[in-house]
Amino acid sequence: MADLFETIISLSKRRGFIFQSSEIYGGLAAAYDYGPLGVELKRKVSDRWWKAMVYGHDNIEGVDASIFMHPMVWKASGHVDAFNDPMIDDRVSKKRYRADQLIEGHIARLEKKGEDDAAARVHAALVEALNADEAPKALYDLIVAEEIRSPDSGAFDWTEVRQFNLMFETQIGALADGENTIYLRPETAQGIFVNFHNVRETGRLQVPFGIAQIGKAFRNEIVARQFIFRMREFEQMEMQYFVKPGEQMEAYEAWSQKRLDWHVANGIRPSKLRWHQHEKLAHYADAAQDIQFEFPFGWNEIEGIHSRTDFDLSAHQEYAGKKMEYFDPQTQERYIPYVVETSAGLDRTILMLLCHAYREEEVGGDKRTVLKFNPELAPYTVAIFPLVKKEGMPEKAHAIEADLRGQFNVYYDEKGAVGRRYRRQDEIGTPFCITVDGQTMEDDTVTIRDRDTMAQDRIPAENIQHYIADRIEQWTPEA
After folding, report:
1. Shortest CA distance to 117 belongs to which of 107, 126, 127?
2. pTM for the complete prediction?
3. How far apart are CA 310 and CA 393, in angstroms?
4. What are phi and psi of 309, to 5 degrees?
């Protein structure tokens, strides 16, 4: 599975999905740039999310809040005092780890060896340690008791566990002193909460309603690895849904199912997804669970659904001195709404789609690499080939290309044998390939090849748009 992950990383660079940031200078750890294909995939995923959230509901509106916010926002939210991860260092390799993830790795190894009772025992101890008054000491004691060794050096020579704040600090204005310290936002949610009344009033919204946002967030992760799964600069797709107190669990269950269904509709097999209940709830939550995907490196979170209670609006009311209450015109009540949050990592969703779509197949004794994306998400929807670069075929192919560009993202290729051109498009996930050949010049028909089945249909050129649109609409995810 590790080899598969490295193959996907290599393909991502070679085919223009994702590049190492600042690569000509040796790169910057845990920072990546999206190339021509990657940015198309990313745009289509974010557009699909926005359509599902905002356009698909009459009571959800969008915002795009500033990355820079007043520093008191993060004091009120609890991030200044409590946004920490438990950090531990291997004295031999000098590498740093999250203590809870070290223990989770130990549990996974026990399960793999079939030692389920031992794994359950350690899991129970981990939950107890995470909820202990002195969690860092409890985690350290568990690591020592289990004799968990460094994954890199194999040594058993650890520092103490200590808390590490994940927020990036910077200064605003001309003076570099403490009074000018602000933070790069570690989440997009607070930009929604501080705009609660602004959006509600201008949108003429009544509870229940939601506010959606897609944007960058920044966390100084202790361990940022596994390609774009864990980065220090990443993008979130979040929606905060405001409900009447007492109705949050109904909304929590409903949004949990909706969000799982969205990933399945994108083409992810249900067997590759699962729910993971939080062992330790955040200070703001009364319920929380994650949707996890089975990556080549194991099960990991792609989206969290949290019932955040009224913590955020209440905290901002206290710290800002501004009323964050809602007046219900139906019941004549005043209350601070509770919040159900859906928070998906856009970069993690991209990585999930790449891992899930990747296939290696044998065709006629040769290996075919193919990315079987949902056709709506594929970077290019259609590629167009003239069979040869003469007899008017390139001109006809360019005319079809121009006609399709208004509706689809199109790639034109006239270099090399048609078979090799097919393979190039398979490898980047293009669902349809059109070939202009000699018969086209006689009767104005073309062949359209399906990426997944490799079957070819011959149709009139004037029917291409309708044919592709129908095939996309009829596409269904794998069972």
Report:
1. 107
2. 0.87
3. 65
4. 55, -150
